[in-house]
């Protein structure tokens, strides 16, 4: 694994190069960025997608174990897209045996307003790719009601979330009064969208509701619901998983200090900044290939 402990607002980077002896014999590099607490923001870059999926599975399994010890449950929000195939490693040994799946409560950070059997359903993707292969309790899987309009589905999903917060199945963030998920898992589109928060879309500005809706998503299908930024940024842990060269420019705009000034407040992935929680970016080498904060990786 090539690992960077790198944070936003990079001015100068103190680069430590260490000999790595992981299973794939890659080199470990750390970029320590002044001004950012190392324990709050991490950027991890992997030589191969296999390295990434294994380390990501370790990360999720460790958070699950630690949170179940502390709270008795693990409240996690999934996204759809390529993230689910990365999560596939969790269905394999040792994770399928060692993770306490019965303590997981699963919601979706975003969902397409289509039937649960529809090819575009994020629920269906997760069910086929993970949930049908591990002993998660069906009563702990909180998917949207697919018989409603997008507006109704968002309102009902927020109601479900409020009930889970009342019972502290999902914790509460004291400072924002928002749900405080133990872990929110995000992918990122080539345009920088996370969950279904797209650049320039009013849903990105929503600060009141926990769950909002779109009927004009720039990417099909048009009708979606999504967690709002305050909910994402209130989580204890947020992971953003990005692979492939096609997203390298978006990765650069989301992370590098040289990104356009306006990106700081309009580029969705860059706006994921947990207030008190921890953020980890998981990138493969291709996705990281335009990162200016780490050119030495690609010498
Ligand atoms: O539309 C969506 O896209 C993003 C990114 O998907 P990816 O396949 O490019 O990784 C995804 O995270 C989100 O859940 C989904 O609804």
UniProtKB/TrEMBL annotation:
Q: Where is the signal peptide?
A: none
Enzyme Commission numbers on file: 3.1.1.31
A GO molecular function for this record?
Answer: 6-phosphogluconolactonase activity
Q: Which residues form the Glucosamine/galactosamine-6-phosphate isomerase domain?
A: 48-281
* InterPro entries according to UniProt: 6-phosphogluconolactonase_DevB, 6PGL, Glc/Gal-6P_isomerase, NagB/RpiA_transferase-like
Please provide one cellular component term from the Gene Ontology annotations of this protein: cytoplasm
> Could you state one GO biological process linked to this protein?
pentose-phosphate shunt
Q: Do the record's keywords include Protease? A: no
Q: Does the keyword Ribonucleoprotein apply?
A: no
Q: Which family does it belong to?
A: Belongs to the glucosamine/galactosamine-6-phosphate isomerase family. 6-phosphogluconolactonase subfamily.
- NCBIfam families per the UniProt record, alphabetical: pgl (TIGR01198)
Q: What is this protein called?
A: Probable 6-phosphogluconolactonase
Q: Which organism is it from?
A: Colocasia esculenta (Wild taro)
Question: What does the organism's lineage look like at the top?
Answer: Eukaryota, Viridiplantae, Streptophyta, Embryophyta, Tracheophyta
């Amino acid at each position: 694994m090539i690992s960077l402990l790198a944070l936003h607002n990079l001015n100068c980077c103190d680069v430590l190069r260490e000999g790595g002896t992981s299973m794939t014999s890659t080199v470990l590099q750390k970029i320590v960025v002044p001004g950012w607490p190392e324990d709050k923001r991490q950027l991890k870059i992997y030589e191969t997608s296999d390295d990434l999926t294994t380390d990501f599975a370790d990360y999720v399994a460790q958070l699950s174990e630690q949170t179940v010890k502390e709270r008795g449950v693990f409240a996690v929000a999934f996204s759809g897209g390529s993230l689910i195939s990365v999560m596939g490693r969790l269905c394999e040994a040792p994770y399928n045996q060692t993770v306490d799946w019965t303590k997981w409560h699963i919601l979706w950070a975003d969902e397409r307003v289509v039937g649960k059997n529809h090819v575009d359903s994020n629920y269906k993707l997760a069910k086929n790719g993970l949930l049908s292969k591990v002993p998660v309790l069906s009563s702990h899987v909180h998917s949207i009601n697919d018989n409603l309009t997008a507006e109704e589905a968002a309102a009902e999903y927020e109601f479900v979330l409020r009930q889970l917060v009342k019972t502290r199945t999902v914790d509460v963030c004291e400072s924002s009064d928002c749900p405080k998920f133990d872990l929110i898992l995000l992918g990122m589109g080539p345009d920088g969208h996370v969950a279904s928060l797209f650049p320039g879309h009013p849903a990105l500005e929503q600060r009141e509701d926990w769950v909002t809706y779109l009927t004009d998503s720039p990417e099909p299908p048009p009708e979606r619901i999504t967690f709002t930024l305050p909910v994402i940024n209130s989580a204890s842990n947020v992971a953003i998983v990005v692979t492939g060269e096609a997203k390298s420019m978006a990765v650069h705009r989301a992370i590098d200090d040289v990104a356009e000034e306006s990106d700081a407040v309009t580029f969705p992935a860059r706006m994921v900044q947990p207030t008190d929680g921890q953020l980890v970016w998981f990138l493969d080498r291709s996705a990281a290939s335009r990162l200016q904060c780490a050119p030495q990786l690609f010498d």
